[in-house]
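We treat protein structure as text, and this decision shapes the records that our systems exchange. Because each token names a local backbone shape, the row as a whole describes the fold. An entry from our holdings is shown next, in its original layout:
>
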Amino acid sequence: MTPNPKRAARDVSQSRVFRGVARSGFAVNGLIHVLIGALAIGVAVGGASGSGGGEADQSGALKQLAATPGGLFVLWAAVVGLFALGVWQLVQAFVVSDPDAKKKWGRRASEAGKGVVYLAIGATALVFALGGSSNSSDSSKTLSANLLSTPGGVFLLVALGLAVLGGGIGFVVIGVRRTFRKQIRVPAGTAGRAVTVLGMVGYIAKGIALAVVGVLFVVAALTADPQKASGLDGALKALASLPFGIVVLVAVGIGLIAYGVYLGARARLAKL
């Protein structure tokens, strides 16, 4: 009998152990976002006091984890969970079905994109778990510089920025419309209302941060200055330079913490 790849992929994704490990990916991603939110608030407070701040992005959060007692164990748990979640998302992209071809491929692209993001964060966590270090801001600047140095790279960088901006707007829309509730089993009563509020606040804050990242990529392309494409850390620090920016950055930091707590709840409530 000829093996059916789609059936095999579906069987793997339905494995209780695999789904359990994948759920842990939501939890560790939530922890990372809680730390990023705390770092963003630290940047706001440091900026107000003139003492500066650390890297308010995945690298900064993972660096903080690596420096804490027991942090190495958490980092390895993050590596396993994030890679499992990334693979699970890619499997979902492979097995998704829809009678409407456009919707099917749109959903596949969405699931595959999520999988790539989780795998990328997992790879960064692996670097720290192995004793190395990484800087997301420098990586963004290097990517921008490489694109700008190639023929047509300006247009590619603008396209990248617009894609990230679109993703940020998408997060805001998900938060406002509360469509994230379709991805989880919403508890009844007060718990359900709390999860919904956390999701709304979290998605909107995450969307704002991503939107600013996208804008910075576009600015880097239009000014031919890769230093302006400084990733999430640069985006959050850019918020601090706006009128009432400290207040805005603190609000976004609190929102990112809310998003992290929501992801922790999603680890248990997600429909896998």
Observations:
- The mean pLDDT is 84.
- The first helix runs from residue 5 to 13.
